[in-house]
Each structure stands twice: as C-alpha cells, then as structure tokens.
Amino acid sequence: MNATDLLPNGLRLDEARAEARRTYELDRAHVFHSWSAQAEISPMTITASAGSYVWDGDGNRLLDFSSQLVNTNIGHQHPKVVAAIAAQAAKLCTIAPQHANDARSEAARLITSHTPDGLDKVFFTNAGADANEHAVRMARLHTGRYKVLTRYRSYHGGTDTAINMTGDPRRWPNDHANSGVVHFFGPFLYRSRFHAETEQQECERALAHLDEVVRMEGPSTIAAIVLESVPGTAGIMVPPPGYLAGVREICDRHGIVFIADEVMAGFGRTGRWFAFEHGDAVPDLITFAKGVNSGYVPLGGVVIDAEIAATFDHRPYPGGLTYSGHPLATAAAVATIRAMEDEHVVEHAATIGAEVIGPGLHDLAQRHRCIGEIRGAGVFWALELVADRDSREPLAPYGSSSAAMNETIAACKAGGLLPFANFNRIHVVPPCTVTADEVREGLAILDRALDVADGHLG
Fold first, then answer.
1. pTM over 0.85
2. What pLDDT digit, counting tens, does each position of 362-371 carry?
3. Which H helix or E strand runs over 257?
4. Closest-CA residue to 192 (of 148, 153, 245)
C-alpha cells in the first residue's frame, strides 16, 4: 500500500500509522490489560476492520481467523448493524432497565423466536460472565440448593462465580474452594479419562462418571449442571451423540437445573442457532453473549424457561444491572439477528464448515505431523497440535505455551493471518460470513505456518 491509500474507515495509510503510534504510546502508559503480565506484552494496534479482515498499525491486512474473541459472527463493520446503532443513538441512547424500550423488547422477541418452546423470557446482562452468574443465581433460588457442577476443560467467564465454574488454569489463582462449584470430566475421546476406544464408550462412561459425581455429592444439594454445549477456548470438543441428552436425563431425575452456556457456541457458530440443537436436549436456562450482536456493543443474557420464570412471578428476583438491555446493545442485536435471518448466515456457517473448512483442515492433517486431531462444526474448529502423534504429547504443556507454538503463531501473523491459539491448539474460528475463497486463503497461510511446528518435531 502507498502512504496515501485509504483504509476501509477512510483513513489514509500515513494517517492510520500516525494514529496507531499515538494509540500504542497511550495504551502502554495507561491501559491495564486482562490476563497479562503488563510489562511483557506488546499489544497489536488495530486501525480498521471490514468483513473478515482487520488492519494493524503498520497498515498490514490480516484475515481474522479468530473473530476477535470468537464473537464477530456477522463479520466486522456489517453495514446494517452499524446503521442500526447510529439510528438508535439518534433516537434513544440510554434508559434505565426498569423502563420498557422498543429495542430491548424486539431483541427479546427475536432471541426467543430461535429457542425451543417454553424458553420465552430473557434477562439481559452486559456479557457472558454475568449471564452465567445470574443463571446460577436463578437456579439456586429456584431449587433452594447451592452446589453447581461444571466440567474440567471449560470456560465460563472472569467474574467471581463464573471463574470458579471455569475448568481451566485461569481459575487457579481465583479459586478458594468456597464457591459451591464441583468439577467433573466431560467427554473428550482424544484425551479420554475413561479409557474409551469409541465415541459411544466415551459417552456412556462420561455419563456414568457424572452420575456418580452427582450421587457422591448428594443430588439434593445440587442446584445446576452448567455445560458449554460445545466447549470453546477449552478445545472445541463436540460432545458425542447422546451426551447432552444423557445430562438432561440426570438433571430430570434429580430435579437439577440444566444450564447451557451458549456464550461462544451460540448464534450460528456451529451451524445452528444454538449448539445444544446438535444434541437433542433442551436446557432449562440458556446463557448467551458474543454472537448475539457480534460484540458491536457489549450484551449478554439468560433465556429462562417457564417454570423457573414463574418462581419470580410474585417473588422479586434479587438481581439487576444498570445497563441491562441497553438500547444501543439491543438495537445491535435486533439488526444482527435480522441480518442473519435475511442473509441465511447460520445455514452458510454450516455449509462452509462441512464443505470447505472441515475438508481443508483434514487435508492439512495429511501433510503435517504436528496435527494430532481435527475437530469442530460450522465455523468452530480446533487443531490439536502434538509433539508426537503416537504418544499425543501436546506441542505446549497444559496451561502454558512453548517456543514451537509461539513461533507457529508468529508465522501465521507474518503470513497475514490472525489466529486464535490456546495452549497447544490453533482454533479456526472465522466469522460465520466468511467466504470459501477467504477460508482457502487462510488455510494456505496456516499450511505454511504449520511447517514451523513440524520443524520442532523429532
């Protein structure tokens, strides 16, 4: 690009570079970053975005295979959503949550038009973490019980209860064993805890394990079982057929609330509106965020079934948020859902996953010794990278990174790809609107980067 070339936001490249330098200086002087050792980071400056691409502070265009934090399901700067936010700002920027407003009412209607019958009420939050917090609070108040069961290899958010529910190392510094959360092992055949050899065995043994945990903890003490319908940052482990239905049966047998965490997997990510639809089981509560409006304005929520909602018909629900159902956020959700419906985005995600991403990744696995397993659905895929295919030794230890992973990720970025990586995995999670040509472009870059990982193998 020449210095006078324009970025998608109208800035000349030289103007964008000057702005990026100032942005970076201010960031390093004043911004405290999440999940980071502050003196050891050099955050990438983003100056523009459009569709499936972002532009860094030097004007380099990168194909966004991360969807940022797996939330820009409808892509960057979708014109219908941008216009809806602007129109809502001109009409009504904000209003307290005790007042009805048209954006929030219509957002709730549209969300529940895609949920099973009986799940017709929405409590809006600011993000996924507080959605999970409030879902657990509702379950505890509804059942009169306190304990909550969640799986290892999961992530449910960074607030107090949500981080204790989380089943990965981010929980450890914040876990004081007084949250009422009990963890169990979910199905993950590639690294089975149950010595299973088939998906059916893994499902049966994982359900037997969960049933035993419930019995040993005391069914009458357990308010809820909370599951990411498809675990996200923990590794995109699609549950085997029958697993979610089996969890539903355990919950029904003991009067336990089944909460489906759809924060990352929902709103088209797996090729369905909600990922639990793959599993033939209907939850009692659904938590959501991210894809509901592609993260354009912070928004999350809980979809509540009729029985739990009735608990609070004549008993005040003891919880609320100043920005619950914020007009700008819910207007963005309305525009996002309508665009997804009109443009058949969910169907597209299913097709692009089945016909382009999945086959393309399996082709990579034939050529790269570092790939131990490919798994996923829709636009929600993970490459499990290993140092040895026979032993399945991860290319980076659980809970940390490695030189091999760091160099592979750097090679992705140098090639023009913005990846999503966690421990020994690279996740392929582009927007649901990604085109077949963009997928092929990304996989070609990834192909070259994986040569770096292969170079670290013996």
1. yes
2. 999 999 999 9
3. strand 257-261
4. 153
